[in-house]
TrEMBL record:
One Pfam family in the UniProt entry: TrmB
Domain called Transcription regulator TrmB N-terminal: residue spans: 8-74
UniProt cross-references to PANTHER family, sorted A to Z: HTH-TYPE TRANSCRIPTIONAL REGULATOR TRMBL2 (PTHR34293)
UniProt lineage: Bacteria, Bacillati, Bacillota, Bacilli, Bacillales
UniProt protein name: TrmB family transcriptional regulator
Domain Transcription regulator TrmB C-terminal: 107-231
Top-level division of the source organism's lineage: Bacteria
Protein species of origin: Paenibacillus cineris
């Protein structure tokens, strides 16, 4: 009984309204006198509340002497309340004043739980498209949310790296003061999500590092991640189609091309390639 009253109050009914509605639902059509007697309250308070509930459409009122009141069927009541709430929420969402920032902010989210919850909330809101660039471990964590999005008709575009592939397709850009033997000692697995080409998350997660992510709707970051994803997928398809010819001309993973841009010493006027890279292992993309 008390829980029922509590939830009716949460829906905006007063204490007296809630008690009268429960009383009528349990006893059936009753006069104002009978309701007041059953609740042990004054008739004046009951009559004014009954009149208000009738005007709002929550009660039926029969003519006669005495006038008798009855509740709507439960399913009619809940459908009526749900419609009113939906209408109010829609009005608030569309009419609430907004101060648009000059630039879309960047947020840093820390902690595995916080990052995953923020991502799950946005995946639930996806309407058109989700672009995913992850390792298998992170893909498994979001499997349920991604499947639900796909069932809603959201288009999913994947780039997934297996846990047994040493590194990604593209070679990393080491810092100038980074030791040669530590160039690939990146702790954790990178991941990125772009949702409906407006919201994105870029982060790192792993057993040996704290989970962190950058979240923004800034169009520049969204565009960068989409271009990176497109480049990865185009390279993947080219490799599948011309793998033998590419390896024969450039070597595995196009080492000759990458080394021109990744391992360049800015002190050399001729942009001489220095150092030696082992080509990255193949990554699997779906």
């Amino acid at each position: 009984m008390e829980q029922l009253l509590h939830h009716l109050r949460n829906l905006g009914f007063t204490e007296m309204e809630a008690k009268i509605m429960v009383e009528l639902a349990g006893k059936g059509p009753s006069s104002g006198y009978e309701v007041a007697k059953g609740l042990g309250v004054s008739r004046s308070n009951v009559y004014s509340t009954l009149q208000r509930l009738c005007q709002q459409g929550y009660l039926h009122r029969s003519e006669g002497d005495p006038v008798r009141y009855s509740m709507l069927k439960t399913e009619e009541l809940t459908r009526m309340i749900a419609g009113q709430m939906k209408e109010s929420l829609s009005f608030i969402e569309n009419r609430m004043p907004r101060v648009e920032p000059d630039q879309q902010p960047f947020y840093n989210v820390e902690g595995d739980r916080n990052v995953m919850e923020a991502l799950a909330r946005e995946l639930e809101r996806a309407e058109h498209e989700i672009v995913v660039d992850v390792w298998r471990e992170e893909a498994a964590l979001m499997r349920s949310e991604l499947e639900q999005a796909e069932q809603r008709g959201v288009k999913l575009l994947w780039s997934c790296i297996g846990s047994d592939t040493g590194m990604e397709r593209l070679l990393p850009w080491p810092a100038w003061n980074q030791d040669a033997g530590d160039r690939h000692a990146l702790k954790g697995r990178k991941f990125s999500f772009v949702i409906d080409r407006r919201w994105c998350m870029l982060g790192m997660r792993g057993e040996d590092c704290a989970t962190q992510a950058l979240v923004t709707e800034h169009p520049v970051m969204v565009e960068l991640l989409l271009h990176h994803f497109t480049q990865e997928m185009v390279l993947y398809e080219v490799e599948q189609d011309l793998g033998g010819e590419l390896a024969e001309r450039y070597g595995p993973a196009y080492e000759r091309i990458y080394r021109k841009y990744v391992e360049v010493d800015p002190r050399e006027a001729d942009s001489e390639v220095i150092g030696d890279f082992d080509g990255p292992e193949d990554s699997e993309e779906v």
